[in-house]
Design brief:
- With 244 residues, this protein is an alpha/beta fold.
- It contains six helices and eight strands; from the N terminus they run βααββαααβββββα.
- The strands form two sheets. The protein has a six-stranded mixed beta sheet.
- β5 and β6 form a beta hairpin.
- α1 crosses α2, α2 packs across α3 and α2 crosses α6.
- The longest helix is centred in the middle third of the chain and has 22 residues.
- The radius of gyration is 19 Å and the shape is globular.
- The chain starts with 6 loop residues before the first strand and ends in an 11-residue tail after the last helix.
Length: 244
């Protein structure tokens, strides 16, 4: 869908310890588990709406682009890698390991091309041309055309936050949520913050693409429980091959 003017937002919370336990049991990264949980919730959401595809979805994952030892005083310095979430796979552990393999390949590609490739290229794009192109896209709505091919289907961002509770003269910060950025043909962004011992999921959606993001948010603990149940039932899971 092309972006409309309405946005919907929902939030969900999971225990950080539960995600870390799966990470340690399966020998994957915490981000792999986060991607797998979102994939499980999104799979059930699409099944509910009778829209489950028979192919994986491409996911843009923002990652830090700071060089080692560099300390920023403000702002963000990020790039992104592309991975795939196999929401067409029924087995949640097989789904997780497939995500792991794609993410490892995305990291390898990023190392080859460099974390600053897009920011370097943007130096050669005149600001007025970039602004005109964005406004033209909004008017023409290319994502509504059947031959439109987006670079990714959604964004999933996992941000490490403070481990200690923050407070000041205004009060105590109980939870930490934020919203990501949407783009043409990219109507869903999930931003995950770890804060203290919780993982906080913020789901931002274009109303045209997903008018009921709370259904996705409510599916997060269900997807986590499903993953835990299958791992517990088959404790010898080891990166199984993808079945055709």
């Amino acid at each position: 869908y092309a972006l409309g003017v309405k946005r919907s937002f929902a939030s969900g919370q999971l225990a950080l310890a539960d995600l870390k336990a799966l990470k340690n049991q399966l020998g994957v990264t915490l981000n792999d588990v986060v991607l797998a949980v979102v994939a499980g919730a999104l799979r059930e959401y699409l099944i509910y709406h009778h829209q489950l595809p028979d192919a994986p979805l491409a996911v843009s994952v923002p990652v830090g682009a700071d060089e080692p030892g560099v300390v920023r005083s403000s702002g963000n310095n990020v790039t992104s890698l592309t991975t795939m979430i196999h929401i067409e796979m029924e087995d949640p552990v097989q789904r997780l390991f497939a995500i792991k393999r794609h993410t490892e390949q995305g990291k390898a590609d990023l190392e080859i091309f460099g974390k600053h490739q897009w920011s370097d290229l943007m130096q050669y794009v005149p600001p007025n041309l970039f602004t005109w192109s964005r406004r033209r896209n909004f008017r023409n709505k290319p994502a509504d055309k059947p031959d439109y091919k987006p670079t990714s289907n959604l964004v999933i961002s996992n941000v490490p936050g403070p481990r200690e509770q923050l407070e000041n003269e205004l009060g105590v910060l109980e939870s930490l949520y934020s919203a990501g950025v949407l783009g043409e043909g990219l109507g869903l962004s999930v931003t995950v913050w770890s804060y203290m011992e919780q993982m906080n999921f913020g789901v931002l959606a274009c109303d045209r693409a997903m008018p009921d993001p709370w259904r996705l948010a409510e599916g997060l603990p269900v997807a986590l429980s499903e993953l835990q149940r299958v791992v517990t039932a088959s404790a010898d899971y080891r990166d199984p091959p993808i079945r055709d």
